[in-house]
Design brief:
It is a single chain. The protein is mainly α. 77% of the residues lie in helices and 0% in strands. The protein has helices at residues 2-23, 26-34, 36-63, 72-100, 123-129, 135-140, 144-158, 163-189, 191-206, 208-239, 245-251, 253-262, 269-279, 284-297, 300-316, 323-337, 346-349, 352-358, 364-370, 373-398. The longest helix has 32 residues, at 208-239. Residues 112-122 have low confidence and may be disordered.
Length: 401
C-alpha cells in the first residue's frame, strides 16, 4: 500500500504539473508552486535520518561477523566475491544509464537551494580524506564516507572483543538501527505528500520531458540488470557451479518470486535456504552463514540501480562527473550499497551519501521514490539470485567447509 500511495502522490504531482504547464492556469500553478515546502520538509527528514541509519547498520553488520579470522576460507571467498561482483554491477549500471541518456530529452532541473557542489579532489587526496582526523566533525559536516570508514574500523575492532562485550555493543547498535528504521517508516508515510510537493512544481516547469526521462531510467535499469546476469552470473553458474541457467533459475523460482513480490530479500531467506540446500546442493553450514549474510549486506541489483541513479540524477541536475570523480562515485556507491536497510525503497534513501559525495542534490531522490516500485521489484529478484549464487560458488570453492 505504501508504494501505491507514493506512486499516487507522484502521479498526482505529475498530472497537476503537466496541466499547469499546458494550460498556464493560475490556480494550478499556485497549487504546484505552493506545494514545494512539503517536498523540502520531506527531503530534510530523509537527510536527518540517513547518516545515523547507515552508521548503525554498518556497525552491526561488520561487528556481528565476529573475529574475521575465524571465518577462514569461507569469509575470504565471500568477501572477495562481493568485491568482484559489486564493482562491475555499479559500472554496468552507470554505463547502461549513460547509454540510455542518449534517448532521454534534455531537461534543466531547477537547482535545489540546499545543493552544495563541492570541488572534487584528486584520487590521492580523496583516499587520504577517507581517514577522518575527527569523526565527529565529519559527521557534523555531512562527510559520510570518512564516517563510514571510521565506523567500519571500529566495528572490525569490536568483532575481536570478548563475546559479552561484543554482543552488548552490537545489541545497542541493533536497537538504535531499529529505532531509526521506525523513524524512516514514519517519514515514508509522509512520502506521498512530499513527492507531490517535489514533482508538481518541477513538472510545471519541465512538462513531458521529465516523464519521458523517468521512463528511460526504468528501461535502462532493466537493461543493466539483464546485462549483469548474462555477463557476470550466468558464466559463473556454468563454469564454476556446473549448473545451466535454466536449472538455476527454476531451482530458485520460489525465493525469487517472494523477493520480487515483497521487494525484500530478507522475507525470502527461509525459501532461499531450502532451495539452496535441496535444489542446488549447498551444504547447510555454508547456506546458514551466507544466505542471511547476503540478505543483510550483498545486493548486486541495488548496487547497479544506485550506479544508474547517480548518472541519471547528475544528468538531470547538470552536475558533471569528471574522470577524477568516477572512482569516488563508484567507491561511494559500493559502500552505501552494503547499507540497504529492510525498509521500502531503502535502496533510494541510502543513496544520499553517494550523491552528496559528488555534489548531486538529494532532492532528486523523491522523484525516484515515486517510480521505485518497478525497479525495486526487478533489483530484488537479482539480489536474491546473487545471494544464492554466492552460497553456491563458495560452497563449491571451499568444499562445503
Amino acid at each position: 500500500m505504501l508504494h501505491f500511495a507514493i506512486a499516487t502522490g507522484l502521479v498526482l504531482g505529475l498530472v497537476v504539473g503537466l496541466a499547469a504547464a499546458a494550460t498556464g492556469n493560475e490556480w494550478l500553478l499556485a497549487i504546484a508552486e505552493g506545494s514545494a515546502p512539503f517536498g523540502t520538509v520531506f527531503i530534510n527528514a530523509i537527510r536527518m535520518v540517513v547518516i545515523p541509519l547507515v552508521v548503525t547498520i554498518i556497525f552491526a553488520s561488520i561487528a556481528g561477523l565476529g573475529d574475521t579470522r575465524k571465518l577462514g576460507r569461507v569469509g575470504a571467498f565471500t568477501l572477495a566475491f562481493y568485491w568482484v561482483t559489486l564493482i562491475p554491477a555499479i559500472i554496468i549500471g552507470m554505463t547502461a544509464m549513460k547509454l540510455g541518456l542518449k534517448f532521454s530529452p534534455d531537461i534543466a532541473m531547477p537547482v535545489a537551494e540546499t545543493a552544495d557542489i563541492p570541488s572534487l579532489p584528486g584520487i590521492v587526496d580523496f583516499l587520504v580524506s577517507l581517514v577522518p582526523a575527527n569523526p565527529f566533525e565529519a559527521a557534523s559536516s555531512g562527510a559520510i564516507l570518512p564516517l563510514i570508514v571510521f565506523t567500519a574500523l571500529v566495528a572490525a575492532a569490536t568483532g575481536t572483543l570478548a563475546k559479552e562485550r561484543r554482543e552488548r555493543m552490537i545489541a545497542i547498535a541493533d536497537d538504535a538501527s531499529q529505532a531509526l528504521m521506525k523513524l524512516v517508516w514514519w517519514i515514508l508515510y509522509t512520502a506521498p505528500v512530499g513527492v507531490f510537493g517535489l514533482a508538481a512544481p518541477v513538472t510545471a516547469k519541465l512538462g513531458w520531458d521529465l516523464v519521458l526521462s523517468l521512463g528511460v531510467f526504468i528501461l535502462s535499469v532493466f537493461a543493466g540488470l539483464l546485462v549483469l546476469m548474462i555477463v557476470v552470473f550466468v558464466p559463473l553458474w556454468v563454469l564454476v557451479a556446473k549448473i545451466g541457467p535454466v536449472r538455476f533459475l527454476s531451482s530458485t523460482f520460489g525465493a525469487v518470486s517472494i523477493a520480487v513480490s515483497s521487494t525484500s530479500t530478507a522475507a525470502a531467506i527461509p525459501v532461499s535456504l531450502k532451495e539452496a540446500t535441496e535444489n542446488l546442493g549447498v551444504s547447510e553450514t555454508v547456506a546458514d552463514i551466507l544466505v542471511p549474510l547476503g540478505a543483510s549486506m550483498y545486493r548486486p541489483g541495488s548496487a547497479l540501480f544506485q550506479g544508474a541513479a547517480i548518472v541519471f540524477l547528475a544528468h538531470m541536475y547538470d552536475v558533471p562527473i569528471p574522470a577524477a570523480a568516477i572512482g569516488a562515485a563508484i567507491l561511494a556507491t559500493f559502500l552505501v550499497s552494503l547499507t540497504v536497510a529492510p525498509v521500502p525503497s531503502s535502496g533510494v534513501i541510502t543513496m544520499a551519501p553517494a550523491l552528496e559525495a559528488i555534489g548531486v542534490p538529494v532532492a532528486g531522490l523523491a522523484i525516484l521514490l515515486g517510480i521505485d516500485r518497478i525497479p525495486d521489484m526487478m533489483r530484488s529478484g537479482v539480489n536474491v539470485l546473487g545471494q544464492i549464487s554466492t552460497a553456491v560458488f563458495v560452497d563449491r570453492w571451499t568444499g562445503g567447509k
